[in-house]
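Course assignment 3, question 2. Fill in each field.
Student: A.L.
Task: Predict the tertiary structure for the chain below.
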Amino acid sequence: MPIATVNPANGETLKTYEAMDEEELERRLRLAEATFRTYRTTAFADRARLLNRAADLLDEDRAEIARVMTTEMGKPVRQARAEAAKCAKAMRWYAEHAPELLADERPAESDVKDSGASHALVRYRPLGPVLAVMPWNFPLWQVVRFAAPALMAGNVGLLKHASNVPQTALYLEDLFHRAGFSEGCFQTLLIGSGAVDEILRDERIKAATLTGSEPAGRAVASTAGEMVKKTVLELGGSDPFVVMPSADVDRAAEVAVTARVQNNGQSCIAAKRFIVHSDVYDRFTERFTEGMKALKVGDPLDEETQVGPLASEQGRADLEELVDDARRGGATVLCGGERPDGPGWYYPPTVLAGLGREMRIHREEAFGPVATLYRAADLDEAVLIANDSPFGLSSNVWTREAAEVDRFVRDLEAGGVYVNGMTASHPAFPFGGVKRSGYGRELSGHGIREFCNITTVWHGA
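Answer field:
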């Protein structure tokens, strides 16, 4: 895949970039290693000052970088501005909270004495240069949710971004440099995916984080395992959105539309499978389908657009194949389902009902504005359908019954359970999944400690 900006609204190639050669990659690896030796000893206050400055610059650049993101991957420009604002918020959150999240921990005095020590503590120390392999769908946020905690922990970062968002990738490097971080603290590597394995094998890289496809995650995890290096993986998702009879059905249907089509439906944590109790299935389906039909699809730079094009021609083709396979298997298309005429990689908001387990879309992630509807006879069947997926990123449940909430929290196989609302990431809460959605956590205290050397310090009596 070429490293290029190709506008998904019309297919026009706007900018192309040459991949960095081996000499430049070596220079950057040496710089990262050298920078870490000194950056690791900086005070939290100094790191926070730099990260807060980066947040201020990002706020100033918000309109400009939003247009870049929209032009590179097609998200509605209003959502792009919101993404930039969210990134600045996360930077400030980590700048404020990192000292307490990484403060020395003191074991219970009785345990210290029992160990034969005069005193002991647990200290969080940075690991070193971390390789971040990031996707195009949230080209700022995916990177910042790694970079902010990593930099505050004293690590340095090397970013291999998706090849279709090179301008955003270069902007991020420039942003941190303008904020005052040393050049080696955060570097963008303009390389193809084929170069990742060799870089990950380099002894100067101490850990890696990847957000992306399951095959990409398997490749990184395999190499990292061979090299005995820490990894965090956030892979695909096919999140359930369960609606029970006690729910506010109209509100659930309204939120369901946003939950499915946010970011043009290209979000790992977008709700994708809508599992509705039989008692309210017809009502929810009517409201939900009406909402999907009413969405404005069009130019993502238009302020009124709610759904823009998919990020790539191949992505649209993959989505079409899933819908066509379901249709051939007997699924009912309640709306959408047909590629529109004209330029750009658009696909309409689509609702499918009558799904069967043999259909590909039942097992695979639909990365675009396509929703699948399931009818559940009771809570037991709702849980069964929700868990009948290889993925386990997040989940949404709508009910006013406390006992049902307890059951869903206990039994849903997911990294998050959002009750009477849609899944959304926030710097204060851990983010990640189970099963084929990956392992490890980003954000919160859990995320900042993922790339730390958790060190026991023991003093004899």
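Instructor remarks: The chain has a mean pLDDT of 98. The chain has two domains: 3-235+437-460, 239-426.
Grade: pending
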